[in-house]
Write a structure and sequence with these properties.
This protein is of the alpha/beta class. It folds into two domains: about 180 residues, Rossmann fold (3-Layer(aba) Sandwich); about 60 residues, Histidine-containing Protein, Chain: A, CATH 3.30.1340. The protein is about 45% helix and about 15% strand. Helix 4 runs antiparallel to helix 8 and helix 8 packs across helix 9. The protein starts with a strand and ends in a 10-residue tail after the last strand.
Length: about 280
Amino acid sequence: MAIITISREMGSGGIPIVHQVAEELGYKLINGGTIKNLASDYGLTDETLQQIDEKPPAFIEQLDRQIELDMNRIQLIVLEEALKGNVIIYGRGGQDLLPGINSVFRVRVIAPFEERVERWAEQEWIDPDLARSLVRKSDQQRAGFIKYYFDRNWTNPIEYDLVINTMRLSNDTAVKLIVDGVKDQNLVEKKSAAKDKLRDLILRKKIQIARLADKRIKDLWFNIKVEDGHVTFSGHVYSEAERQAAMDGVNQVDGVTGMTDDLKIVGYRNVPADN
């Protein structure tokens, strides 16, 4: 089950490349348009997408929890579409959503800053100074998004299997490199194994969403692990009520085969343990 993830910089020329790759391989493209079309099925609005998609948090506690909830819903869209196989995930931290899946081909499309500014000014018919500001802002937002949600430096080349500089290479060469690269034997993984891992990731994401949506859980200091459908909680909660809320969240999710509760109740938040 091949999956391509493509990280790109604004003005780097990633859009025509990704569309050509999708056409040549017959892959489905998962991008902003895909997410927008499916958003309402996941409780998301167009306004919400504009506010949070590929942007760092607001660092306001109550608002950030809602942002994280909606971000997890976007990620669930990406994961459930990826489960269908033969897809290209364009942006959205795609490669970071798929840990442990060996058939993911991670691509980054780049170009020098001033080159990207010039391209964006020409493409959008705007003043170069405005284009420079927009490209810089986009870089900062996307870097912040990846750093906050995935604790990764998005410019680190070791995080990718292929980095393409479009100032040096033509679109046709870039497309050929990606099309050939995704067929490499080092990326081969049994389809059944990859799908099992993806299903576990989807279950985990659904449980995270339930946890964030449940107002009975005041803080989120516990971990969720899913393996072969079995859910394990570890970490701590502040009360028995929060523990029960966590269990309720698991019970809402179809596909869970079992559950292990390793949560500890700590009382240093001045919450009685039997509340």
